[in-house]
Write a structure and sequence with these properties.
Layout (H helix, E strand, L loop, with lengths): L1 E10 L2 E10 L4 E11 L6 E16 L4 E10 L3 E8 L4 E8 L18 E6 L5 E15 L5 E8 L2 E6 L8 E16 L6 E16 L8 E17 L3 E8 L2 E3 L4 E4 L2 E4 L8 E8 L2 E8 L3
Parallel strand pairs: 4-7, 4-8, 4-9, 9-10, 9-11, 10-12, 11-12, 12-13, 13-14, 14-19, 14-20, 15-19, 16-20
Antiparallel strand pairs: 1-2, 2-3, 3-5, 5-8, 6-7, 15-18, 17-18
Amino acid sequence: MTPRGAAGARAGGWVLAATMLTSPAAAQTWRTVTSARQLHGERELAVQVEYGAGLFRITPGAEGELYRLEMRYDEEKFTPVRAFDAAALTLRLGVRGREGVRVSLGDSRRGEQPPYLHLGLSPDIPLALDLRLGAVESDVELGGLALQRVRYETGASETSLRFSRPNPVACTELVMRAGAAEFEARQLANANCARVSFDGGVGRVLLDFTGAMRQNMEADLNVGFGSLDLRLPRDVGIAVHLSRFLASFDAAGFEKRGEVYYSANWASARQRLTLRVNASIGGVQVAWVAPQ
């Protein structure tokens, strides 16, 4: 591939740059685009990201920046989306597939860099985050962001979702949905969300509820064909309401009272986590984690 051209522009707080590369044998026109916007007095922001196929990454951004984006995409198959509405305080980012074109993560030629979208979001203002992803390899670090609510939806994918630092504001809900996927969500207590839900189809799912829990949490977990691994903190009171069909459950560390499984410290724990688990064919495994 050989460089074909480059362009840059700066206006109204936006910084845009693009480099286009072509590969005639593969009938592909690759473009790399970067864009950013500084904070201009925004007090909150609703962010929607749509991304169909490629490598996807989110991290907390730099102080003073509303967001910073870099993405690489095939111009023959995709159209970039960048739309900020200052009045409505909304930001839409991502790429949209061109009509009639079918794409997948494996579309890149061997040895070429795959398509990607890297996004940094402001840690300075409260965010409502809506991520709608397709066939992606996803690395999402939300620790340290001020999250009011989060929705994460993905198709056939591999997901690593983390809250490595506590959310400084109260979050109303965290919604996660995955298709045929390998899905890991770690340190969910740091999300500081009152309600958590997960809906999964086929695959391996790990949900880690460790972290700094500052309010009681309720979680609705629905898993189809596959395994569900739960990492549960020993210092939190846990109650599990379980509905299962041909699915095993590791009950070690619980006391069953009626139809509910309780941890031994349920009555005395300062914080409580209530899980409603609906599992079909597969198994539900539990690992108890000591407080750090």
